[in-house]
Design a protein that fits this description.
This protein has about 350 residues and is an alpha+beta fold. It is about 35% helix and about 25% strand.
């Protein structure tokens, strides 16, 4: 990153997290730190972007690649970026859905009337680290719409929503829970598995090449040692039994080295979740209540039916397989599932 990019990144980080620029003088910035940032929380600090500005004002905090301040900012940005929630604005025109909607029957529960709310769209970020040196690590983005039960075509479109979304809920559209349910996580792992299966061919090919190269080097080395054991030069000849034992030991060591190489270059890797982002989209929600329970105001938690702002009701889907739930459904925690899984 060049100095203008570093400066833009620091200013953007301060703006997003409650800080800002109090005064600007060339390459010197007097900034307000967000609460909890840096080494003292909220306060003001002078930043120098460039060696000339720092020479003229040595009391200022120098900001460049490798500086302590920038390392702290990057560390805070990474920590905050592990979990992000933004809220999209409501459209100018809204239409209420028809009642009653075509929602599946759930034993012991009944559907409530439509209420305005905001529902989550999830961006799961998985990091796949492969043990093979010649295969690069992967950052796998999975954009998932739980109400429709399908992966979104473009994770980049959801990423752009984080740039234009608001940090606070839209007025008049109370948010449902922004956290993924167990079913949402299972579906993201299923989609991740399909992505990594396509990637695994390249990993296996690279591993096979490394194993073949190392095995050939080991074979050449031990064949030379065995040949020297059978045809010694410049030393007393061994007995037949001593020669056979020496060759046997070399062959065992050869086999052990080949097994070590095969295990080291085996096609495998580690996958971990790196971040979860949630984009809250305005919609209509049909809460699911126990039969006989009073319709009191409470937090909007799944499961619930969903209709878009134009009034179109979305067909609920099974949280485990994505199949439509047109007739009846079972309940598993906070997820609706089809009868076969129930």
């Amino acid at each position: 990153m060049k100095q203008p990019q570093i400066r833009q990144f620091v200013q953007r980080f301060l703006d997003v997290n409650g800080g800002g620029v109090a005064r600007e003088e060339g390459d010197l910035l007097r900034v307000r730190l967000p609460s909890g940032a840096g080494d003292g929380g909220a306060g003001e600090l002078t930043l120098a972007f460039g060696t000339r500005a720092h020479r003229c004002h040595p009391e200022a905090e120098f900001v460049a690649i490798g500086s302590a301040f920038l390392d702290r900012v990057v560390g805070d940005a990474l920590a905050l970026g592990r979990r992000a929630v933004v809220y999209l604005p409501a459209p100018p025109s809204v239409r209420q859905p028809r009642i009653p909607p075509a929602l599946p029957s759930v034993p012991g529960f009944q559907w409530g009337g439509p209420v305005r709310a905001s529902r989550p769209l999830f961006l799961f970020v998985y990091q796949a680290e492969y043990h093979t040196i010649d295969v690069r690590d992967d950052l796998v983005l999975i954009a998932y719409d739980p109400a429709r039960g399908r992966v979104l075509a473009s994770p980049q479109a959801l990423l752009r929503a984080f740039a234009r979304g608001n940090c606070h809920p839209e007025e008049g559209w109370p948010p449902a829970s922004p956290d993924p349910t167990t079913g949402d996580l299972w579906r993201s792992l299923d989609l991740l598995d399909r992505r990594l299966q396509r990637r695994s061919r390249l990993v296996k090919e690279a591993s096979a090449i490394e194993i073949a190269r190392e095995t050939a080097n080991i074979e050449a080395y031990y064949r030379q040692l065995i040949d020297e054991a059978r045809h010694p030069v410049g030393r007393a000849r061994q007995t037949v039994e001593e020669e056979a034992e020496r060759v046997r030991q070399l062959q065992l060591d050869w086999k052990r080295r080949v097994q070590e190489v095969s295990g080291f270059w085996e096609a495998c890797g580690d996958v971990r979740i790196s971040a979860i982002g949630t984009v809250m989209e305005p919609c209509w929600i049909f809460p699911l209540r126990r039969e006989g329970a009073r319709a009191r105001k409470r937090a909007l938690r799944p499961p619930y039916g969903v209709a878009d702002c134009r009034g179109g009701v979305l067909e609920p889907v099974c949280a485990l397989c994505g199949a439509g739930l047109c007739g009846s459904a079972s309940l598993m925690g906070q997820d609706l599932i089809c009868e076969s899984h129930g």
